[in-house]
Amino acid sequence: MLTEDIKTFYERTILVYGVKKWVRSNPPFDELIFTVLSQNTNSKNYSTAFKSLKDRFSSWEEALMAGEEEISLAIKSAGLHKIKARRIIDLIRGFRLIDPTLKLDVLELMSDNEALDFLMKFNGVKEKTAGCVLLFSLGRNVFPVDTHILRISKRFGLLPRNCDLSRAFCFYESRLHDADCYSFHINLVQHGREVCQSRRPTCHLCYLKDICAKYI
Q1: What's the angle, vertex CA 206, arms to CA 200 and CA 207, rounded to 5?
Q2: pTM greater than 0.85 (yes/no)
């Protein structure tokens, strides 16, 4: 069940931004790499990096054969490209041991919690990354918490100031069983980008300010 504070927050975001129809973003392994590229950078940079990566290599096998340096050059726009290139290599190698096709059909046979645990066994894959794979690629009702959502949740008083992404994920995971997680996630990210920005939030334009602890 939705607790009262989350229920109000959730319903208001739906009222303001509407219900979003789920559309599959990428196949599971592609979504995994896409989300790895999104770490510590903005959407323009990681989208550019992912497109560059896919344009340069026709398959993940080809990327693996090309090696870390070539991958690093392809994803330079994502920032931390050497670290991310090494992580991509490790993920390709690790997942190939389980599924040489990298289709990750095994996820379809798992519950949400089983799939999260499975993905998070791999280095560099935490709750947000695993959650994005399940939500955006498989349409599971899972709620990834990114920096936008963490920031907004703290400002609205839903989470303590010292809360990290992992704790925030657990907080929402235990409360959103009756919510449309896809719409809620998309709407909050949009709100974080357009209104509740990190440095200069435009509170006077916010349709949610009457329930925001920071504004009140």
Answers
A1: 170
A2: yes
